[in-house]
Amino acid sequence: MNIILFGPPGVGKGTQAARLKEAYNLLHLSTGEALREEVKNQTELGKRAKEAMNKGELVSDEIVVGIVINTMEKASGKNGVMLDGFPRNIPQAQTLDALLSKRNITIDHVLSLESDQEIILKRLAGRRFCNKCGKDYNIYFNPPKVEGECDACEDGILAARADDNEKVHLDRLNVYASQTEPLKEYYAKKGLLRPIDGMGSPDEVFEEVKKILN
Ligand code: AMP
């Protein structure tokens, strides 16, 4: 089973991705996560991506598609691929179609998480990640047991992402509306779009996801 996790920044794609990956043994490909690794490791690719990421803009299709191709090669032993944060515009979707058809792979579902902009902005403002294991929290919706500390790691400290500030959030939502949202129609026409109410708790949303996949 191959799926695309779709939705605006902050809607909860990462949270659902962690659950889906475990429950269905999928290769999780988050282009945002892969890009952050490149930036952290100060690779050539990371240096080229960093500026766009910090401004909330899209990184060039060439860089992102390269990452997707490299990761897809590692899908053996898994039940399929889960794309998270990719594609982000129509050209990326067309490139993906070409890549998949060459490998005889098809997308089964585009899970489209939907939410109000007000809730999304609050979710984005409250996001924190553990500096050790990467586990995600939200100080408003999913706080850790002890403020600022990871529940899972002994000495994990929670911090916001470099691109988590209000100006960047609004820019990212604008980029989403103009470049990414048109993909809904693209996938609806292919009969693959599965809208899901993303405003419930992570467990409630996951129940909806399972109803579609099972
Ligand atoms: P994310 O973790 O998915 O929110 O992505 C963080 C940032 O990485 C985005 O704001 C973009 O700058 C960049 N990025 C992630 N995925 C893509 C993509 N498919 N195309 C272009 N840029 C991307």
From TrEMBL:
Question: Which GO cellular component terms are attached?
Answer: cytoplasm
Q: Where is the Adenylate kinase active site lid domain?
A: 127-163
Q: Which reaction does it catalyse?
A: AMP + ATP = 2 ADP
The record, for Pfam families, names:
ADK (PF00406), ADK_lid (PF05191)
Q: A Gene Ontology MF term for this entry?
A: ATP binding
Positions bound to ATP: G10, V11, G12, K13, G14, T15, R127, G200
What Gene3D superfamilies is this protein classified in?
P-loop containing nucleotide triphosphate hydrolases
Q: What does this protein do?
A: Catalyzes the reversible transfer of the terminal phosphate group between ATP and AMP. Plays an important role in cellular energy homeostasis and in adenine nucleotide metabolism.
The molecule here is called: Adenylate kinase
Q: What organism is this sequence from?
A: Candidatus Raymondbacteria bacterium RIFOXYD12_FULL_49_13
